[in-house]
Amino acid sequence: MRLHLGGHLDWYDPQKRAWLDLRLDAPLLLTDLLQQLGIPPGEVAIVAVDRRAVPLEGTTVSDGNRVELYPPMGGGAIGGGANLPQSR
């Protein structure tokens, strides 16, 4: 299985790799895989298996899958749009 740890999720790999090649002997729930890797499920917001978005809970992955994990993302202007014109 090819696993991508997007964003800061590579911090959970001791070698800080964004891509890992893992061997799975049997299908495994994605939540169980996260537990084995020490990645808290709350750190994962977006999951794709073979380039298709899937839910984290209840998804099973196998040795031939390509799995991509991404954390929650945020951003924007402080103050909620300070550069926008004010309404009158």
Concise synopsis of the structure shown:
9% of the residues lie in helices and 25% in strands. The protein has 88 residues and is mostly beta strands.
CATH domain topology:
Ubiquitin-like (UB roll)
Strand order of the largest sheet: 2-1-7-4-5
Distance between the ends:
57 Å
Identify the CATH architecture.
Roll
What does this structure look like?
- The protein is mostly beta strands and 88 residues long.
- The chain has one domain (2-70): Roll (Ubiquitin-like (UB roll)), CATH 3.10.20.
- The chain is built from one helix and seven strands, in the order E-E-E-H-E-E-E-E.
- It has one helix at 30-37; strands at residues 2-5, 19-21, 28-29, 46-49, 52-53, 60-61, 66-70.
- Strand 4 and strand 5 (52-53) form a beta hairpin.
- The termini are far apart.
Brief descriptors of the model:
about 90 residues; mainly beta; Ubiquitin-like (UB roll); five-stranded mixed sheet; two-stranded antiparallel ribbon; 1 helix; 7 strands
How are the secondary structure elements laid out?
Elements: E1 2-5, E2 19-21, E3 28-29, H1 30-37, E4 46-49, E5 52-53, E6 60-61, E7 66-70
Parallel strand pairs: 1-7
Antiparallel strand pairs: 1-2, 3-6, 4-5, 4-7
